[in-house]
Every structure is written in C-alpha cells, then in structure tokens.
Write a structure and sequence with these properties.
This protein is 26% helix and 30% strand. By secondary structure, the protein is an alpha+beta fold. It has one domain: 60s Ribosomal Protein L30, Chain: A, CATH 3.30.1330.40. A hairpin with a 2-residue loop joins strand 4 and strand 5. Pfam families: Ribonuc_L-PSP (PF01042).
Length: 136
C-alpha cells in the first residue's frame, strides 16, 4: 500500500507526539481509531464516572472518523477496555446510547490499568468507508 493510500489524523493528545502514533488511520476502505480515553488535551473528563468517561471517549473517537466524512453508522467494531468489572453496565449503557441503531461487533475487556490511574475506560473503533449496505 502506498503512502498516498494511507491518511492519518492527529487529535492533539500529548501521548501522540511522545509515543509516535495517530488517533486514526485510514487505509483502503477501513478507518482504525486507536485507544481513546476521556482526556482532551491534559484534562480528564468524567473523573470517577465510567459512564461519562465512555461517552466522552466514544465521542472523541467518532470525531476522529468524522475527519474522513464518517459517523456512527460506519462503525463496524468497538472495543472497550475497563479497569473494574463493576463498570460494565455503565459503559454498556453509554455504548448502547451511541450505537444501538448500528449494532457494531463489540468487545469488552477488563484490564489491569491504564497509563493514568484516573482513567476508567479506553475505547477503539473500526469503521468502513465504502458504499453503505442496504438495510433490510
């Protein structure tokens, strides 16, 4: 794949520069959004609230695919990483509010922790940027 076929989007996260990654990468008919938290710049939104952190993280991930002209209906897969099993219902509720009409394939994992201990949720998206499938 040539470099012209790949486009990258930065979100301004301080970790993007220090770790050398892009928020989203489009290649062919796919757009991949890397791990996204509820940080905007150096401010963590929804501290202590897994539902709010999930909503902010998904919104930020959707903003990344919007750079490619895509919205929630283009999302094929979501991944949710949580630090506490007790937060499954709160994060699931946020996911349902955003993706209920879309029903992407979804994975939810409980992990040991994140780079900042205040982070309760991190999400990833995979989107399709080809012609839309007709709905039945």
């Amino acid at each position: 794949m040539t470099s012209e076929a790949v486009r990258r989007v930065q979100s301004g996260s301080p970790w993007e520069e220090s770790f050398g990654f892009a928020r989203a990468v489009a290649a062919g008919d796919r757009v991949l959004v890397g791990g996204t938290t509820s940080f905007k710049g150096r401010v963590l939104y929804g501290e202590g609230d897994p539902y709010e952190q999930a909503k902010v993280a998904f919104t930020s991930a959707l903003e990344a695919i919007a750079e490619f002209g895509l919205g929630p209906g283009s999302v094929l897969r979501t991944r949710m990483y949580l630090t506490h099993p007790r937060d499954v219902d709160a994060v699931g509720r946020a996911h349902k509010e955003i993706f209920d009409a879309v029903r992407p394939a979804a994975t939810l994992l409980v992990v040991e922790g994140f780079v900042d201990p205040r982070i309760l949720v991190e999400v990833e998206l995979e989107a399709f940027r080809g012609p839309e499938e007709p709905t039945s």
